[in-house]
Design a protein that fits this description.
The protein is an all-alpha fold. It is about 85% helix and about 0% strand. The protein contains 20 helices and no strands. It is globular and about 85 Å long.
């Protein structure tokens, strides 16, 4: 037994030394995103080993902090959520409130990415409470801005919450945290179709995160910039950069952002009335989504393809896709996008000569939207729906 204990201790020390080595290597690497992509499985084994014993919690937490952004961008959500929940439990047992709050923030963001807005709101709200109780105001501001995204997606007023987070972070916070808040603010304005304001916020986030160690955050800011430029029809500023970004995302293995990029390329193609290009981009995005399983993005793609096939006159295909979009968005309780898809489905029924069904679809969407906070985006859609019903 003495010999067994000796070898167990040696193995424990080797595991700790290996995990520490990975952390030091990542910290000193000029291109950590490439290293993580190459050694991802080995790095996860180091996380698993560290989580095996509560005595190694600090080491496990540092590894999780380092790898979280990468795991989310690789769409490795289910497995990563298991690690986060185990670490969260250990943080509670150890009474480590700061780490507990950070892990709850990470868990909330994974749930948000998976489309479970209720769980996301619960975890992010609790993270905010813990940070505020400890007077960790910079961390609180970032979590608050993450919560704002969830609130906005749930049909609530996330903008004022995010603006409050920005006010707090501007009083005192490092550039990376400021960039995270600005990126969330940009995303909220994008959701409201306020493209010029969203563009300025994304550019600020891009400038604040322009360092090799923050490449993933910087790429997401660039993604928002290009999306806004596309919606503002500033084609000359985006053509070459879109291709460059797609190549970078492919090399980094960031399939989640790459799928969103394909979606946005399709939107731009549709704005240019290039239906064939839009169809191709959205089918490519759907292929990526088949491995990612992001329900919100999948619903967007079904909705967008439904619009294309309506314009192409392929009404049965359009109806099938739009019904899928409506079902997912209703499940997610994303009622703005649900109402938008309902309006697009009504277009199909109008094209088929079923005007009474089309009117019923739009009236149902109108009734739902009237119960939501009157944001400019919702007010615009309400006016569109009412005009079509009146006509």
């Amino acid at each position: 037994m003495s010999s067994l204990s000796k070898w167990q201790e040696i193995r424990r020390q080797q595991g700790i030394a290996n995990a520490e080595r990975w952390l030091n290597t990542l910290a000193s690497s000029p291109t950590p995103f490439q290293l993580v992509l190459q050694e991802y499985d080995n790095l996860l084994r180091a996380v698993e080993y560290a989580l095996d014993s509560p005595a190694n919690f600090d080491l496990a937490y540092r590894l999780i902090q380092t790898l979280h952004t990468y795991a989310v961008s690789y769409a490795d959500w289910d497995r990563w959520l298991i690690y986060l929940q185990k670490a969260h439990h250990q943080s509670q047992l150890a009474g480590k409130k700061h780490e507990e709050a950070a892990l709850m923030d990470m868990i909330g963001n994974v749930h948000r990415t998976q489309g479970d807005l209720k769980k996301a709101e619960t975890y992010l709200s609790q993270a905010c409470t813990l940070y505020e109780q400890q007077s960790l105001m910079s961390e609180y501001a970032v979590s608050l801005s993450n919560l704002a995204i969830v609130l906005e997606s749930s049909g609530k007023d996330g903008l004022s919450v995010c603006q409050n987070a920005l006010h707090i972070i501007n009083k005192g916070g490092d550039e990376v945290r400021q960039a995270r808040v600005m990126l969330n603010l940009s995303s909220i304005h994008m959701r409201r179709h306020e493209w010029q304001i969203a563009l300025q916020a994304a550019k600020t986030a891009y400038e604040l995160s322009d360092k090799p160690q923050h490449a993933v955050l910087n790429t997401r800011a660039l993604f928002n910039i290009l999306t806004c430029l596309g919606r503002l029809e500033k084609w000359d500023e985006i053509n070459a950069t879109f291709t460059q970004l797609a190549d970078d995302l492919t090399q980094r293995g960031d399939v989640h952002t790459l799928a969103k990029l394909r979606n946005n390329l399709g939107v731009i193609a549709l704005d240019l009335h290039n239906l064939a290009e839009a169809e191709q981009q959205w089918h490519e995005a759907l292929k990526l989504q088949s491995t990612i399983q992001d329900p919100a993005e999948t619903a967007f793609l079904y909705n967008n393809l439904g619009m294309v096939y309506t314009q192409m006159g392929e009404l049965e295909t359009a109806e099938d896709l739009l019904k899928k979009a409506v079902a997912i968005q209703e499940q997610l309780q994303d009622f703005y996008q649900w109402a938008n898809a309902m309006d697009n489905l009504a277009e199909v029924y109008e094209a088929k000569g079923e005007t009474a069904v089309a009117r019923q679809q739009r009236q149902q969407a109108l009734n739902c939207l009237q119960k939501l906070p009157p944001t400019p985006q919702i007010q615009t859609l309400l006016a569109v729906l009412q005009a079509k019903i009146d006509a």
